Amino acid sequence: MFSPPLPVARARVSSTLEIERPNADPGGLEASLLQLIQDHQQTSLKLRDETEKAKKDAIKTAMRVSDLLVDTVNGGVQEGFINEKRIEFESRALAATVIRFAKQTHQWLAASHAINTAIKEIGDFENWMKTMEFDCRSINAAIRNIHQP
Hints:
The chain is mostly helical. About 85% of the residues lie in helices and about 0% in strands. The chain is built from 2 helices and no strands.
């Protein structure tokens, strides 16, 4: 957001007396300019190195934060996955139990139906026996009435 302030280049400003002198040493000005350029290049390299280091540090920090976030999210996802597996296992066990109980209930219903049928048959047989007994008594009474003088 805020860039660090750049170092201020300081140069020697020549006075009007030095500029107007025709015999002034041109190497002094040239040397000053070369020194300024060299200082600027060194400062630029130093700043570039510092920027590169800060960039690498920022990337490392961002990667660490990213890894921590991924680990946190993965932990929740892993816990959810484990819970899903447990629920799946329990639902399969429950389904097997329901099937077993359904078979047992069907067997009990079949046995109950068989008992009811047997009781009905016993009741039918008893009624048939009563009817036969009544018929035999009726026949016996008729035969006695015929043989009685």
